[in-house]
């Protein structure tokens, strides 16, 4: 049986400045966005529609604002509003962790919409472009959660080789749920989506595939995590994370259906118009 190592959440001290592991994971996420974005721009079907390296830096600035503001607001409003409204000073304490992916997702969509208006690009073209770069950034965030000993898992069978005791919670063996989500929702999703996006797809297809796969993966891995809270529908109990993932699954299905339906319509032969007799 394993025991969570409970590392110091502060990675390094630079004079009076404390650099937290959680913040470093976000820097890693933004760095991989640039690195993967440069690889993606080299793909022929991406270069053909005019994406350039200069777009990445400008887009990253908007994206960082969307992730941080949306992620924090999502954490406050979706998961623990009572605590944060009782402790307003903690609303800005992002170094302690507590960032909602679903809130960050909405924040990025808004940020990309504003960037697209500035650059004259369609929002769905932007989302198709950035979707394959998102999962590894998410994986880095989940690693930060694990280092901070956040998001403990549900109790696990002690015979499970990787069952882990979280000393900050109790002495019960638990699933290391942040690691599950890092591997499944992050790394596995990245591999599938990167392969899918290597070839030209109709508008909305890559974004739709991301939304569908992430929603399904998150719904599954939430079963191993202690829920922030649970909701009940028709005798079925689901966690907050699962509830927020359902709209992403629905959105993904809608986008994929629309993408391929519009492609089919565009490829349909045009019936010639019969000449009228005078």
TrEMBL record:
Keywords: Cell membrane, Lipoprotein, Membrane, Transferase, Transmembrane, Transmembrane helix. The keyword Oxidoreductase does not apply. It is a multi-pass membrane protein. GO terms for biological process: lipoprotein biosynthetic process. The chain crosses the membrane at residues 20-39, 60-79, 99-116, 123-141, 179-197, 204-221, 233-258. It is found in: Cell membrane. One of its GO terms (molecular function) is phosphatidylglycerol-prolipoprotein diacylglyceryl transferase activity. InterPro entries: Lgt (IPR001640). Pathway: Protein modification; lipoprotein biosynthesis (diacylglyceryl transfer). Pfam families: LGT. Catalyzes the transfer of the diacylglyceryl group from phosphatidylglycerol to the sulfhydryl group of the N-terminal cysteine of a prolipoprotein, the first step in the formation of mature lipoproteins. Belongs to the Lgt family. This is Phosphatidylglycerol--prolipoprotein diacylglyceryl transferase. The gene is lgt.
């Amino acid at each position: 049986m394993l025991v969570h190592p409970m590392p110091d959440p502060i990675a390094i001290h630079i004079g009076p400045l404390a650099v937290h592991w959680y913040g470093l994971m976000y820097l890693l996420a933004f760095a991989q966005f640039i690195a993967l974005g440069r690889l993606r721009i080299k793909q022929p079907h991406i270069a053909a529609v005019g994406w350039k390296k200069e777009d990445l830096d400008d887009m990253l600035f908007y994206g960082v604002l969307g992730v941080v503001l949306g992620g924090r607001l999502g954490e406050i409003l979706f998961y623990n509003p009572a605590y944060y409204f009782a402790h307003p000073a903690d609303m800005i304490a992002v170094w302690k962790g507590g960032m909602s992916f679903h809130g960050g997702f909405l924040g990025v969509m808004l940020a990309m919409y504003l960037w697209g208006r500035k650059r004259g690009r369609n929002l769905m073209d932007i989302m198709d472009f950035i979707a394959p770069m998102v999962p590894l950034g998410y994986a880095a965030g989940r690693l930060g959660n694990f280092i901070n000993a956040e998001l403990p898992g549900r109790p696990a069978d002690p015979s499970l080789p990787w069952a882990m005791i979280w000393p900050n919670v109790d002495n019960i063996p638990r699933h290391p749920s942040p690691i599950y989500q890092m591997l499944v929702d992050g790394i596995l999703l990245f591999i599938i989506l990167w392969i899918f996006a290597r070839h030209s797809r109709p508008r909305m297809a890559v974004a739709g595939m991301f939304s569908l796969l992430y929603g399904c993966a998150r719904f599954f891995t939430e079963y191993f995590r202690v829920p922030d809270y649970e909701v009940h529908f028709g005798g079925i109990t689901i966690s907050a994370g699962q509830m927020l993932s359902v709209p992403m699954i629905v959105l993904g299905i809608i986008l994929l259906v629309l993408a391929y339906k519009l492609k089919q319509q565009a490829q349909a032969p045009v019936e010639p118009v019969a000449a009228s007799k005078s």
